[in-house]
Amino acid sequence: MASATAAPHVHAPTDSPGNYLTDKRGIASWLFTLDHKRLGVMYLIVGMLAFFVGGMLAEVIRTQLLVPQGLIFNGQTPQAAYAAYKHYNQVFTLHGIIMVFMVLIPVIPGALGNFTVPLLLGAKDVAFPRLNLLSFWLYVFGTVLAIISTLLGAVDTGWTFYTPFSIQTETYVVVMVLGLFLIGFSSILTGLNFIVSIHKLRRPGMSWFRLPLFLWATYATSIIQVAATPVIGVTLVLLALERIMHIGIFNPALGGNPLLFQDFFWFYSHPAVYIMILPAMGIISEIVPVFSRKHIFGYEAIALSSLAIALIGFLVWGHHMYVNGQSAELDAIFSFLTFLVAVPSAIKVFNWLGTMYKGAIVLHTPMLYAISFLILFTIGGLTGVILGALATNVVLHDTYFVVGHFHYVMFGGTIIAFLGGLHYWWPKMFGRMYNETLARIACILLFIGVNVTFFPQLIVGAEGMPRRYAHYLPVYQPYMVASSIGAYIQLAAFLLMAGYLIHSLARGKKAPVNPWGGGSLEWTTSSPPPEDNFQVAPEIGDHYDPYDYHHLVYDANVGGYVHVDSPGHDAPVYVVGSIPRPVAG
Amino acid sequence: MSEAASVGERQNQGCEHLAHHFDTPQQQFDAGKLGMWLFLTTELLLFSGLFCAYAVYRALHPEVFRYASQYLDMPSGLANTLILLTSGLTMALAVRFAQTGKKIGLAICLFLTICGGLGFLGLHGYEYFTNYRQKLLWGLDYNPTRGPHGKPLTPILSMMPPKVRAKPAESPGWTRLDQLGKVGFIVSHSDIAPASPGPSGAAPQEKIVAIASPYGQPANVQLFFSIYYLMTGLHSLHVLVGVILITWLLIRAIRGDFGPGYYTPVDLIGMYWGLVDMIWMFLFPLLYLIH
Ligand code: HEM
Ligand SMILES: [Cu+2]
Fold first, then answer.
1. Is B42 on the interface with A (CB under 8 A)?
2. B77 has pLDDT over 50
């Protein structure tokens, strides 16, 4: 469309640019908003509340495990101990369900994705704003159902709901499962919305290979959300019907096959781990080049490896079932495919390192998180490969090693990247800066906490301690205590973070348009953006490249970066890509 | 295709329906269409879970499917197939009439489609009802008094494994499993495939005995009916939703909302109805025509 003409300029916002946070007032203007940015903020709030609850449950777990017989849930007689340990099962089940289904899966697409996707595209909103609102409310209602089920009788099946135990337990599995069904629906609609937005709402000139990599990651994630979530939906419905109507599909007593449940469950839940990690990788792909002041290395490789992960990720679910009665031939095939899926992840890691190599690295908070991510995710990914190997898996399956692995990837990967993204886009979301020093301290504290918590779990798992036990052999105690101390360190880091972020909302320094020198479109509109995102619809010039930082220079008067037409001339004029990049790229 | 595109272009005139975040009606139409395709994909995947369960159990128990399918009323299923095919045609015509602005044709076709949907639901409901009377239900509630085609069920005692014989059958027909113990606790009686050899010594050594029905039926016929009700039930639910949506279209069509400038809802719901049709075209042979 707008092909060969030189790009017009987009001028910096001048008089009263508008502010999506304050332009409309009243609680209803939030609850029924169609604005993707407000929905993002609401996802953030609900997600953080869920994270708080899930985190407190984690602290309960770690406190229980300070002593071998259990500090909180224990009993003198076997009967008393049995009853108490059941509560422990409920606690870790809720911790898992909340963290997986209410935090890790929805929060990056829901909060950061909703906020940034239209901005990065240069669009006014997502393709279907009403659907977006519906999606948010499904998430909330699903969470409410989960709370109700917890009050009635908290589920004690583990987040995996394996049959036949999930058919037999007296707890309120049906209500919980219906809640998760709604959350799944919400996830599908979010993914659908993003796919259509990325296909249809790109500004003219924003071709596929000019998309910021976060959009590629979101696109790949959305494919998984749309293609895998219906399967967990039908599985959960079947489980509910199993309990209500005794249909027998998963119930061996009625001729059903419990392995089928595991197959269905992991057919979703393995791809779901990529729903968690892909957007996280997208965030890292945004942060690393900006804070290395260097063009992203291997753009195409990163973009396409997201798709590769999404596709291969559908073929590896059997690695959760090596020792569950799956045939040896299948085991071998799944093991091979599992090794394969690690390749695109590794490709990304090398490209991020390549981006940092010889870059002018600035260690602001988002970059600290990105570096933490690189270290922690690498540990997580490598332990995943160890688990993917058949021989080692037989020994390590259902031990703390698995717990250590998935916390390294889910916490060290997803949560850390999410926090990085939150710190990166925070000034844009709320128009305020946070205290950089405290933020760095919290980040480093968290990094230490994560390692102190989860590394001992890897060791103790390799030594044979099974997961999900409320009590353990005394020989494991040193590791368990270390792990608990790590959990308390994390708690301290999060409290600090909550403190300075709330402080920033109240009296943080006003954020400039472009505090970090990012090259993508969200950094050309005011902080916070107006309701329609851009005062003037951005025009994409022929030389637009979101990772080209040559024309962004720091302006101390503004407190942020400004776009200059040519070096030495610092008029704050926002021109998106009208100047040819040096031939090098 | 190309014709559809040119028709789509004509939609550019319908500006009053343009949402603020789209630049052109064409862009909005395309977005809606893509969204619908994706939604249909998720629907297909929702069903695919059940198709998968079907495939697994049919592979594990071919005799069950062959036997139980005889219980189903093939002529009624065939009639339903024809009804849905016809309603698919009328829906496609409705979309065409909407694009070309033939308002009366549109209303008539939508009406006929609704009739088709209701006819399908009626016939299917009647089938459920007769099944219910014969106690051809899922799981433990599968308890028919007669065999397929009204033949009497004859007891074949020799097929009963010892433990089952130990419990007296209270009703003629299927030995109720819950008499044997609490549901979910009698794994050893089921006929799931033995676990593959795990680490040495972990494999079950003895072959697990299947539960044989005492009345000449293969074991686990109830599984077929669970799957039958799940698949057709989910499908009927979709038909019901379709009927409601098309009724809404009909009301709007009579009000004169649609024309060459704006027909997106007719188009999208037409796609949905196409999917509902198509799924039945798989269900019918898979459930009713097993020989
Ligand atoms: C390098 C890629 C990865 C490989 C090769 C890998 C491999 C594995 C394997 C083989 C298991 C099964 C262990 C067992 O139960 O015996 C496993 C478990 C798990 N992985 Fe990964 N993984 C990878 C990345 C991830 C990522 C990125 C996430 C999430 C963000 C993740 C989350 C999980 C979870 C949650 C479990 C445990 C599920 C449970 O049993 O509760 N993994 N992984
Ligand atoms: Cu997996």
1. yes
2. yes
Report yes or no on whether pTM surpasses 0.80.
Answer: yes
pLDDT above 70: residue A320: yes
**pLDDT, tens digit, for every residue of A108-151?**
999 999 999 999 999 999 999 999 999 999 999 999 999 999 99
Half-sphere exposure of A575 (CA within 13 A, CB side): 22
Whether A287 has a pLDDT exceeding 50, the answer reads yes
Domains of chain B: 2-144+220-288 (1.20.120.80), 154-216 (no CATH)
pLDDT of residue B1: 36
Tell me which residue has tokens 């494919």: A223
Could you tell me if the ipTM is greater than 0.85?
yes
CB within 8 Å: A323 and B139: no
**From residue A529, how far is each of A536, A576, B59, B73 by CA, in Å?**
12, 17, 58, 63
- Domain borders along chain A are 7-12+33-576
For residue B115, pLDDT over 90 is answered with yes
Q: Determine contact: A253 vs chain B, CB below 8 A.
A: yes
Contact: B222, A248; criterion CB under 8 Å: yes
Are B34 and A199 a contacting pair at CB < 8 A?
yes
Strand partners, A54: none
Q: What is the pLDDT of residue B8?
A: 43
Asked if B285 and B107 touch (Cβ cutoff 8 Å), the reply is no
Strand intervals (E) in A430-555 = 552-555
Ligand 1 atom closest to the Cα of residue A388 is: 10
Contact A48, A40 (CB under 8 A): no
Q: With b meaning 16 or more CB within 10 Å and e meaning fewer, what string describes B245-279?
A: bbbebbeebeeebbbeebbbbbbbbbbbbebbbeb
Using CA of residue A449, residue A450, residue A453, residue A455, what is the dihedral sign?
A: negative
How many residues are listed for chain A in this entry?
Answer: 585
CA distance A193 to B45: 18
Q: What pLDDT sits at residue A392?
A: 95
Most confident of A90-94, A201-205, B4-8: A90-94
List alpha helices for A70-172, DSSP H.
78-97, 105-107, 114-121, 129-153, 165-168
Give ligand 1 pocket residues (Cβ under 6 A).
A 160, 273, 276-277, 319-320, 338, 341-342, 345, 381, 384-385, 387-388, 393, 397, 402, 405-406, 409-410, 413-414
In the prediction, which pLDDT does A556 show?
A: 87
Residue B216: its pLDDT value, please? 64
User: Counting beta carbons within 10 angstroms of the beta carbon of residue A518, is it exposed (0 to 12), middle (13 to 18) or buried (19 or more)?
Assistant: buried
Q: Cα-flanking dihedrals φ and ψ of residue B82, to 5°?
A: -65, -40
The CATH number given to A7-12+33-576 is 1.20.210.10
Interface test with A, best of B45, B182, B187, B189 (most A CBs within 10 A): B45
How far is residue A420's CA from residue B63's CA, in Å, rounded to a whole number?
57
